[in-house]
Amino acid sequence: xxxxxxxxxxxxxxxxxxxxxxxxxxxxxxxxxxxxxxxxxxxxxxxxxxxxxxxxxxxxxxxxxxxxxxxxxxxxxxxxxxxxxxxxx
Length: 89
Description:
Radius of gyration: 12 Å
Mean pLDDT: 96
Largest sheet: 2 strands, antiparallel
Shape: globular
Oligomer: single chain
């Protein structure tokens, strides 16, 4: 679901309202991964991905780059074995 929202945020990058909504949803789903007792993703990888959305230690959806959105998506898809469908989610 996070990958889906990241794809939408990338596609709607020029619309602040849509992009910020989609990024906030993606971050919420990514943050939730740390509470899964059988999680696949490491805490270090989670921190690395979540830092892509931050500026000055705070989430900053207005100044995030398209490269960071893609990087978050690509890292998640690699960890969860979704590379073959990451553009379709």
